[in-house]
Write a structure and sequence with these properties.
single chain, 11 helices, elongated, 50% helix, alpha+beta, 12 strands, 4-stranded antiparallel sheet, 2 domains, Pdz3 Domain
Length: 377
């Protein structure tokens, strides 16, 4: 079931991206030859106007064929050249390219806004007086790599119920803790093994979620010279907003997440140039299936939020100035604008083809890394 949910999410994200290219191209008078759901081989198709709409076997998203996207003699000087992407003014070409990214960001904004309307897990320090909120729960927000918490199987979204010293649980238990009490307890008792009670599942929907217990040994080095188990945590409540505040807060949160995604991507690129390994910090399709499963187990709103986050990531990655990506094509437009003439179509097409091949190779490497983490973690 998790794989089916992942494929549905992937289809929605890619189709929204391709729809952006499609609709702006159409509105700009550019010929669109095909809009496909899934990837070939083709099951069947139907033609409406000049565009064929197809349903294909491989359920991995979709595609749009825009005339002149890959320049050739026909699109540059053929009888229908005036309706080719490559012959349109640079600002129209840029608009068509950016439209896919814009649609992904709009989709993320709408999903997050719907989440705020229905009820979105929110840190209590961000709740305002006009919000409707449930009781707060202490949830794990992050789990550090190579940490006792990760080794014990703790995950983001787990609710912390109690902490105690394993050797004397009867006299050391701290129930319903706050982040501060957890940190203080670890500092005072972290040289001994600790027991952590937690709940996992639809926390805000079901109070009967069973309590589980794990044993951890805090270590030094995760947070300076302090003892720690490797988790970030926060008091979270389910918050719902009315229509217009939800739209506004959804827009603000989408902007913040986009900014954080950009800075994280720049950081990864910087590490790569410094010769540091970054593959362990990148998740591919196999890893995403697992994350989708975790999100769906936590509830619909978590799945909605995760889909929005992936949509933002897809938008940001597509703007990277690398051949075959929208950002690479935008870079070609900028070069053409500066030099005052078109890039040789054979050169542009070759670079895009090589770029696409490198992206496939990179995806294969990342997928291999996902499998290694899955079976040998």
């Amino acid at each position: 079931m998790t794989v089916v949910i992942f494929l549905i999410i992937l289809a929605i994200l890619i189709l929204s991206h391709e729809f952006g290219h499609f609709i702006v191209a159409k509105k700009s008078g550019i010929r669109v030859d095909e809009f496909g759901l899934g990837f070939p081989p083709k099951l069947f198709g139907w033609k409406r106007g000049e565009t064929e709409y197809s349903l294909n076997i491989l359920p991995l998203g979709g595609f749009v064929k825009i005339f002149g996207e890959n320049p050739d003699e026909e699109s540059i000087s053929g009888p229908d050249a005036s309706r080719s992407l490559v012959t349109k003014p640079k600002h129209i070409q840029a608009a068509v390219l950016v439209a896919g990214v814009a649609c992904n960001l709009i989709l993320a904004w709408l999903l997050i806004s719907v989440g705020f309307m229905v009820g979105l897990p929110t840190p209590v320090d961000q709740i305002v007086a006009s919000d409707k909120s449930t009781a707060a729960h202490l949830l794990i927000t992050t789990v550090a790599p190579n940490s006792p918490a990760l080794a014990a199987g703790l995950k983001s979204g787990d609710e912390l119920m109690a902490i105690k010293v394993a050797a004397k649980p009867e006299v050391s238990t701290v129930a319903n803790p706050t982040p501060e009490l957890i940190r203080q307890f670890i500092e005072q008792n972290g040289k001994e093994k600790l027991l952590l009670e937690y709940r996992r599942g639809k926390i805000f929907k079901n109070s009967n979620v069973p309590v589980q217990t794990v044993e951890l040994q805090p270590v030094i080095g995760l947070v300076g010279d302090k003892l720690a188990i490797g988790i970030g945590m926060d008091l979270i409540a389910n918050v719902s907003k009315s229509f217009f505040p939800a739209l506004w807060q959804g827009l603000l949160l989408t902007g913040r997440l986009a900014y954080l995604t950009v800075t994280s991507l720049i950081g990864l690129i910087g590490q790569a140039f410094m010769g540091e390994s970054v593959l362990s910090n990148i998740t591919g399709p196999v890893g995403l299936v697992g994350l989708v499963g975790d999100a769906s187990n936590l509830g619909f709103i978590y799945l909605l939020s995760f889909t929005a986050f992936i949509s933002i990531n897809l938008a940001v990655v597509n703007l990277v100035p690398f051949p075959a990506l929208d950002g690479g094509r935008l870079l070609f437009l900028l070069i053409e604008k500066i030099k005052g003439s078109a890039i040789n179509p054979k050169v542009a097409n070759t670079l895009n083809l090589v770029g696409f091949g490198l992206l496939l190779l990179f995806m294969a490497v990342v997928t291999y890394g996902d499998l290694i983490k899955l079976f040998w973690k």
